[in-house]
Amino acid sequence: MNAPIAESAVTRRHPPLDSDAFDALLARLTSEFADSAAHYDRTAEFPHANLARLHEFDLLSLTVPASLGGAGASLPQALKAVRAVARGEPSTALVLVMQYLFHHRLQGNPYWPVELRERVARDAVRDGALINSLRVEPELGTPARGGLPSTIAKRSADGWIIDGSKLYSTGSPGLTWLAVWARSDETPPRVGVWLVRRDTPGVRVGSEWNHLGMRATGSHELVFDNVFVPSAHAVDVHLPGEAGAGLDALGLAWMSVLLSAVYDGVARAARDWFAQWAAGRTPGNLGVPLASLPAFQQTLGRIDALLFSNRALLDASAHGERVKLDEAPLVKYTVTNQAIEAVQLAIEASGNPGLSRDNPLERHYRDVLCARIHTPQNDSVLQGAGRAGFAAFVRA
Questions:
Q1: Roughly what angle, to the nearest 10 degrees, separates helices 20-43 and 75-88?
Q2: Is residue 245 scored above 70 in pLDDT?
Q3: What pLDDT shows up at residue 4?
Q4: Where in this chain does the record put each Acyl-CoA oxidase/dehydrogenase middle domain (predicted)?
Q5: Which phi and psi angles does 275 have, rounded to 5°?
Q6: Domain spans of the chain?
Q7: Contact of 31 with 55, CB cutoff 8 Å
Q8: What is the DSSP string of 236-296?
Q9: Does the domain formed by 249-390 have CATH 3.40.47.10?
Q10: What is the CA radius of gyration of the chain?
């Protein structure tokens, strides 16, 4: 076990979170990450260098409490960081979102041993150690639609042995900690989280992530083959139906805002490319830039209206820090669908140049479409909203 580090030994390497210097740092990182984004998309390499830069400025521990060496960032502050990173390289931003969500909730989880909670937090501060929840399975699919995991945790003499596999393990090449959703071999089984170090013998990559968009997230399948887990690492395990540390209203607000901000950032990068391209493109038969034409001006106006709506909704949701349980999915639905529409408008107006692999707009389009696969998905959001809307008019 890593030795604890005293709070006094922690050196802050970033400016205060609400300062002009912090904004300037984020703008610099946006530009830097944008320069290498095409490389990561083309090669599907994991952006280790980007994450090292974020750790250099303590941005991987932004939502770790100040008492443990982090910045104790609020949701608006986390949103600011995610927006900046996503506008440069969204796969890096998605890994960052998972880190922020986990650490925002970790220290308030009463089911984890305090020592283990603090160890994970201090690992993030000192080493930039990443953590993520692994829940999706080949047979089950997303657990948001119900069902029990096939991944099994079996009792051993001094701990547990885990066998199974998890799909879409975002960040897997860079993770230190894996929060693995599994069920015990008991009767009746208990279900919950077993905390596994990524370097534990028996953890290996199965099928590799090879998707249309968000190609650098390293969301590989991870296979667990006779993986030993210490007893204390069964951190949040309960009988089905018992209370656990699931997402509360505040947790849902954080997830909805930060996840949506990734794809809003993609749309803003697409908007910037389109505006620059139209301003610089002067067809010979016109003799004036495309940006001077009413049709292109209206297109950019429509894009900016969508992104204005996104910004207003994200800021309002973040600063309130509370969205009603039945409203949080609507933030994700609205922002991500408007982000997709904004990029589609740029594609339609730019034509072949927009779809050329020589330009970034087609990459932004592939990336922004990935918003649709994240839980909650559109059908679930709309059905839930409709059910809630009808509830007041349905007789008991």
A1: 40
A2: no
A3: 37
A4: 137-227
A5: -65, -45
A6: 7-128, 134-238, 249-390
A7: no
A8: EEE-TTS--S---HHHHHHHHHHHHHHHHHHHHHHHHHHHHHHHH---TTT-S-GGGSHHH
A9: no
A10: 22
Q: Which tokens sit at 289?
A: 């830039």
370 Cβ neighbours under 8 A, 6+ residues apart: 211, 212, 213, 214, 263
Residue 356: CA count within 13 A, CB half-sphere: 10
Beta strands at 175-184 and 130-134: parallel, antiparallel or unpaired: parallel
Tokens of 216: 């650098």
Calculate mean pLDDT across residues 247-257. 86
Whether 7 shows a pLDDT value over 60: the answer reads no
- Which residues 6+ apart lie within 8 Å of 377 measured at CB? none
Q: Averaged over 27-38, what is the pLDDT?
A: 98
| Closest to 250 in 3D by CA, of 147, 104, 44, 80 | 104
What DSSP assignment string belongs to 325-389? TTTHHHHHHHHHHHHHHHHHHHHHHH-HHHH-TTSTHHHHHHHHHGGGGSSSPHHHHHHHHHHHH
Rounded to the nearest 5°, which phi and psi values hold at 154?
A: -105, 140
| Token couple for 207 | 């099928």
Which is the CATH superfamily of the domain at 7-128? Acyl-CoA dehydrogenase/oxidase, N-terminal domain (1.10.540.10)
Confidence class for position 250, pLDDT limits 50, 70, 90: confident
Q: Which of 172, 178, 182 is nearest to 197 (CA)?
A: 178
Q: 375 and 142 in contact (C-beta within 8 Å)?
A: yes
Distance CA 52, CA 128 (A): 8
**pLDDT band of 147, cuts 50, 70, 90:** confident
**pTM, entire model:** 0.94
Residue 2: per-residue pLDDT? 38
CATH class of 134-238: mainly beta
Average pLDDT for 107-130: 96
Place of tokens 């996840």: 259
Task: Name 113's Cβ contacts closer than 8 Å, sequence gap at least 6.
Answer: 232, 235
Residue 42 backbone phi and psi in degrees, to 5: -70, -40
For 170-219, list the strands marked E by DSSP.
175-184, 191-197, 203-205
Residues 332-364: b if buried by 16+ CB within 10 A, e if exposed:
bbbbbbbbbebbbbbbebbeebbeeeebbbbbb
Q: Which two tokens stand for residue 300?
A: 């950019």
